[in-house]
Amino acid sequence: xxxxxxxxxxxxxxxxxxxxxxxxxxxxxxxxxxxxxxxxxxxxxxxxxxxxxxxxxxxxxxxxxxxxxxxxxxxxxxxxxxxxxxxxxxxxxxxxxxxxxxxxxxxxxxxxxxxxxxxxxxxxxxxxxxxxxxxxxxxxxxxxxxxxxxxxxxxxxxxxxxxxxxxxxxxxxxxxxxxxxxxxxxxxxxxxxxxxxxxxxxxxxxxxxxxxxxxxxxxxxxxxxxxxxxxxxxxxxxxxxxxxxxxxxxxxxxxxxxxxxxxxxxxxxxxxxxxxxxxxxxxxxxxxxxxxxxxxxxxxxxxxxxxxxxxxxxxxxxxxxxxxxxxxxxxxxxxxxxxxxxxxxxxxxxxxxxxxxxxxxxxxxxxxxxxxxxxxxxxxxxxxxxxxxxxxxxxxxxxxxxxxxxxxxxxxxxxxxxxxxxxxxxxxxxxxxxxxxxxxxxxxxxxxxxxxxxxxxxxxxxxxxxxxxx
Length: 470
What we know:
Glycosyltransferase; two-stranded antiparallel sheet; 23 strands
């Protein structure tokens, strides 16, 4: 059956369709790509890390350096996935997958393209504006894809990846010196304050024909790292009051036995932590609560799992080892009555469970557990292993874990044993490889602790203690 891709955009901490056909056909498992490399008989973290790295290494354009949003259904580049890819290259070098020279050359190709690509307020034929980049870019030309927005969070995640390579490639040769120079210039060019639009909160996006989106980045969600970088910019900073505005809108409460700042999809508890080690550092809000943001994400991870164990909707296979709700692909739009309850299955959406956001149609994603490994390895690693073992040949392939699966969805040809995605998504792959490496070695965390813009931004937000005071 034909697969329809849903173009997505970060809106209010969730991912909403920019182009969404409500009559989207149900997707099947036909034509799933299986790796030419033999799948190991047992779950192996080293194998997972290498395959996930291969996504970024193999799915980048040799001319622009941009990385695909998803494969095998390739359509455009995601600038957030491209930022994650830069950090993945570092991980590849440290793990011996590629040489430092190979990675440096690949990084430089991308940074040169980003620096030289057209920045303008025109509707088409451009890549970005005021140092920001459009959410999705054409893989070959690098120009804005259709009518997507100039994106604050996606640019932020791209810049986080750029700062990670700026710190890593510290050699005294010309190649690495140029990487550092371009990375610095790209960061300093971003006019973070442009997106304030005369308010104390960053707008989520801007269109050349319609102006700013009405939605703003207020807490709590994945945008902490965005605000930290915007505060830390020496050229176009946002005022410190923006962090107060951010924390003033938190939703603190108990969910399934865990008190924390709530946000439903787990990616919101993961993305900023990919780049900032929040262990032992506190802003005023968390000082009053007596925990740090790392502990907050640990509690959110446990609450997500506890919801799945309780399984209030009665979906198939939910358990203490098969769990994980976050933004991901879904089987398609269909309504079915299941055990007396109407279930509305969906396509790509921000699934999650919390006091403020509960969206569940039986679809789970390996990145929910994979991106939370440092917070709770004792439950996240067994979850990945259980998914690998239970769904052998359906959920794990060329680039590691496919994006998502829904054992309850048995409708349509090829879905007799449940629905399994046929795509790998760059942003979800990135959370897995970066957080796995942070758990094992702290590589990306330790690099970012050295970055003067990150350190400055954290201090302006009022963070104190721990490694910030060493």
